Amino acid sequence: MPKFIVALSAALLFATSAFANVITIKFEPAGGEAVSFAFDTEANTSTNLATGDAAPYTFDEASNTICGAGPDGAELCATFEGPSTEPTVGQSGPYTTNTGTAGTATIVSIE
Q1: CA-based nearest residue to 106, from 97, 95, 96, 98
Q2: For residue 17, pLDDT beyond 90
Q3: Confidence (pTM)
Q4: What CA–CA distance (Å, rounded) separates 30 from 109?
């Protein structure tokens, strides 16, 4: 795959696409359990697919960072490596969080 378009470059699509309403991304941290989130562009919410917990999110295109509330209510941000481009299903690449974790994010679906 090309230099990763960072799974959360999907967030760029959130702001610009007229057809995509939900983008599902699986985050696989190094040494931890994978978690998948569905990002709804119309409601501007992210939903943890395992728990059903939903919260608003923001995306900073300049830094390629998406932020939302973690399970304890604290802000959790993921920054993706690589340029932001229009995402496609199957793209994956590295990310780091503001809590010091890192891993790979993969775009699972775009609806």
Answers
A1: 95
A2: no
A3: 0.78
A4: 22
